[in-house]
Amino acid sequence: MLEKQVDRAAQSSPGPASAAVDAPAAEALLKAEKCVKCHDAVKSKKGSSFKVTAAKYKAGPDAEAALIKRLTAGSDDHEGIATKDAKAVKNLAEWILAQ
Ligand code: HEC
Hints:
This protein is mainly alpha-helical and 99 residues long. The protein has helices at 2-12, 23-32, 50-58, 63-73, 86-97. Helix 2 (23-32) packs across helix 5. The structure holds heme C.
């Protein structure tokens, strides 16, 4: 019984208990939402690379909030991200800003 609980705790915690960006979750979300069709972390494809996006947002004020807004509200180029999971979007924004 106790063993099972420990197992479950180990599975549900993604890596060390810290506020670090969950990179696998961010990358999985980009794949699930098909963002990778047009965006790559470092290579510019149809859309700019997340490295370029990170540099652009970090040059402005409130980088994370501005990027979250851009991700959720969408733009002339595409609609906002489909997920309504605010935590997942925040994680993705943090991951993009870390590129
Ligand atoms: C059909 C191609 C395509 C898809 C799919 C796509 N994008 Fe884009 N995206 C673009 C283009 C084109 C632009 C505008 C040019 C640019 O800034 O890269 C853009 C712009 C952006 C920007 C703004 C960059 C800036 O400088 O302000 C972000 C952030 C972004 N996309 C994230 C995403 C995310 C997250 C997804 C998945 C939910 C996604 N995109 C899916 C083509 C795409």
